[in-house]
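Progress report, Aim 2. The chain analyzed during this reporting quarter is listed below.
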Amino acid sequence: QVQLVESGGGLVQAGGSLRLSCEVSGRIYDSFAMGWFRQHPEKEREFVALISWTSGTTDYADSVKGRFTISRDNAKNTVYLQMNSLKPEDTAVYYCAANRWYDWRYGMDYWGKGTLVTVSS
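Predicted structure tokens for the chain:
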């Protein structure tokens, strides 16, 4: 089992920055990938970013490319999402997720409970 706990959400003005953290515990294998997803009110959850736990290979949704950066600190068992140039449309609950493979398209195996990010205009 893998447990994920997000933190770092909050209220920020448009154009500002936030960094989300996800503490990871449990059994993590080399093949694992860690991701961030978000869910706007009344919309489906959507992919934001993915990172390989070992190689550091990353993937991003087009809507956040150039503004968001996913990273991990293996020694601290923590995954980060640095969000810059935030827009009101980035407002959502952000979820950390883990998958046994580097692929988010078919679902993720483990999920955190989410942290709310609100961007005011």
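The mean pLDDT is 96. The two ends are 40 Å apart (CA to CA). These observations will guide the mutagenesis work planned for the next reporting period.
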